[in-house]
Structure formats: structure tokens, C-alpha cells
Amino acid sequence: MWPGCGGRYYWAPGSPAPGEARGVAVLFAWVWSDEAQLRPFVELYASLGWRCLVCHPDLVALYLSEKATSLASGVIRELVKELKTKPLPTILASFSGGSKGCLYKVIQLLDGKCEGDATMVDYRLVRNCICGQIYDSGPVDFVSDVGTQFLQKPVIGNSSHPSILRSWMAKALASGMDTLFPSRIEAQRAEYWHTLYSSAGLGPVLILCSEDDDLAPCHVVCGFARRLLELGTDAKLIKWSNSPHVEGHYMSHEAEYRTAVNDILEKALVTFCHRSQLNDTSATGDQEYKIAHSVCSLHKAAASSNESLRRVANSPSDHFFLPSSKDHNESREPESLIEEQKRHVSHPPYMEPQGVLGQILFDVCVPKNVEGWDIKPTVSPNGRPTLASSRQLGPFNPIKYFRRSRL
């Protein structure tokens, strides 16, 4: 048990062992509740195979958000310790004012709406495990007159009248907060309801209420359930005509209450299985995407290299075309020089033999097969680049070739 942080929380005795539990149920109790009053609910969840983490918020946590945040951070730390060993489906069960004392701050911390002392990895772990919510006699609006009535009246007990001390504390706190911090209380109220509506995607929701419950008015609870349905949540509302606040629902309708709780726990298990499969698929998909992205990058690099080589091969500078005159080149524009080089490359000079003797000399002197020749540029003694070949020809003697042709 860890008191002094806006409330206290503990793992309920009698729950299944950590390695044997089917899931975790976080029970957010009402103000001024004790362990004995929560024991019937702990036994109910334990009989269904769920391990219970119980949270008792203090009175100040209802109005001071800092205290509620501190309490919610402690609850999340305990869940992280449990779920890191073995992730399990988790249910958030709120009784009466427990949603205002701690539950909504837990949701805000998991959504990153307020700062806590856990890491984002831990918050993601807990959020992925939360697969449903239960509201017993709630949510309760503490800014309205209903909140003051809730603080004055004993939720559970044999006495039908509140003690003088409790009544005085409730009236003093409510009037003092409304007088000193009216804008802050109203903003906190709007934040509270907005957070509860934003939790619609956590999983299925079970809402239990009574028509004659003046602490949790039926029209407020029904409006909350209707809004969740509009947001696409799998919300189930069970409304009794005559049932006392909080513990009276379970005591008066035990069989129906147990069936409803068992149904949502089964839904939470299914939701957890589907979510785990999606997370595994997403992780596998990320690895496949990285591999495909790497292969695609290699293809792009290869295509870019081929394109670069193609551009180099088509570049006029790769062909051994030498301008005839330096002065002529300097007097012309670069664009015209490049176009002329392309024309020379695509249309090389053509030799036309003239006469019978010229035809004979052309057939003898001009080779028809130049494959395998090693043609490379060299530098002449006067500094001009020339073309050299590994096949060297001797001095030209026309009489020699003419005699051979006569033979």
C-alpha cells in the first residue's frame, strides 16, 4: 500500500498469482471507501481469474488535479511492473467518483496530455493492454450540486445521515473551491468529460446505473453512454429501476451483475488477442518495408549509374574529334561547336574512289575490317594530339601495289 500521493493503491489479497491471472482489473474506488467495502468486487473478479489493483483516491484528488496526477502515476508504475513481466488484458473499473479522483488522469497520462514520470515505451505498453472500461454508478459530475450531495452523503453504510464532521468538510471544500477557483473548476470539469469521451477507443464499455440514484443521475449516465455509442464504442448500458448507489447494484442484482462483468471481460480478452495480432503484423510489416525500401534504393542507384554511363557515352568529349583550327573554335559559340561535333560523330567523313586506278588503290590501301585494332590518342612531337594504332603501316609505295594488281 502506497499512501500520501492523493490516495493509496495496492494489489488486493486473494487475487490470482501474477503468472496465473487471465488479466488485470484496476478498481478505482469511491472517496472514503475502505478495503472491506471493496472486498466483494475483488472476490468477483478473482473468481473470474482476474488480478485486482485497487486504488482509493482522497477527497482532495477530486478537486486538485496535481494530487490526482500523482496518484495516477503511481498506479501506472505498478501496472508497468506487472505488464513488463507478461502483458495481460487490463480493465479499468470505476465506482462512483473514482473516475474523477484518478481514472481520467490515468487516461491523460497514457495519451500524453499531461506529464508523468514514466517513459513513452511504458505508457504505450499499458495503453496497448487496456481493453475495456466499467462504470458502476458513474461518471459523477462533481462541479454541480450532485458533487456536493455526494460528498455529504455516505455512499455505503448503515447510517442514512452523514456525520457532522463529514458534512462540514464537504460544504467547506465545495464552497471554497467554487469561490476561489471558479474558472479553474469549470475548466477542470470540461477537461474531465473530454478525457472520458476520448477514451472511446480503448475497448468495450459497460455502464451500470439506477433510475432512483440521485448521486449519479440517470440522465447524466445515459447521456454519457449515448455519446460513446455515437463515437462508435461498443458500449452496453444496464439500468435498474430501483437499486442503491454503488454496492447496492451488485448486492441487489448479483447474477445479472456477474453475467455483465463476465461478458465484458471476455470481450476484453478478444480485443487483446486481436490487438496483439495487429501489433505483431505491424512489426513484421515494418521489417518487410525496410527490406523492400533497401532493395528499391539499390535499383534506383543502379539505374542512376546506368544513366550516368549513358550520358558519358553520348558526350561529345568521349569521341576523338579534334577541331581544325583554334582560332575558328574561339570565334564560335559553344552551342554551335557541340552541334557540329554531334554531326561529325553521327556522320563520319566518307571516301569516294575516282577512276579505275583510284578504285584499285582504294581496295588495296583501305582496310575493310578494323576490329581488334587498338586505336588510342597520342601526342605528336609538335604537341598536337593524333590517333595511333598498334598496327603500324609502312611507307606507301603506289608502284608496288600497281604491280601486284597487274599480276
Structural features, described:
There is one protein chain. Helix content is 53%, strand content 13%. The chain has 407 residues and is an alpha/beta fold. A seven-stranded mixed β-sheet has the order 1-3-2-4-5-6-7, sandwiched between helices. A two-stranded antiparallel sheet has the order 8-9. Strand 2 (23-28), helix 1 and strand 3 form a beta-alpha-beta unit. The longest helix has 60 residues, at 254-313.
Architecture blueprint of SSEs:
Blueprint lengths: L6 E5 L11 E6 L6 H13 L2 E8 L7 H21 L4 E6 L2 H14 L8 H10 E7 L8 H8 L11 H17 L1 H17 L6 E6 L7 H13 L4 E6 L6 H6 L1 H60 L12 H5 L3 H13 L8 H11 L9 E5 L5 E5 L8 H9 L1
Parallel strand pairs: 2-3, 2-4, 4-5, 5-6, 6-7
Antiparallel strand pairs: 1-3, 8-9
| End-to-end C-alpha gap | 123 Å
Low-confidence stretches: 154-162, 288-293, 312-332
Main sheet properties:
7 strands, mixed
Q: What does the radius of gyration come to? A: 44 Å
Number of strands: 9
Helix/strand order, N-terminal first = EEHEHEHHEHHHEHEHHHHHEEH
Structural class: alpha/beta
Name the strands of the widest sheet in spatial order.
Answer: 1-3-2-4-5-6-7
Number of helices: 14
Sum up the overall morphology in one term.
elongated
Mean pLDDT across all amino acids:
75
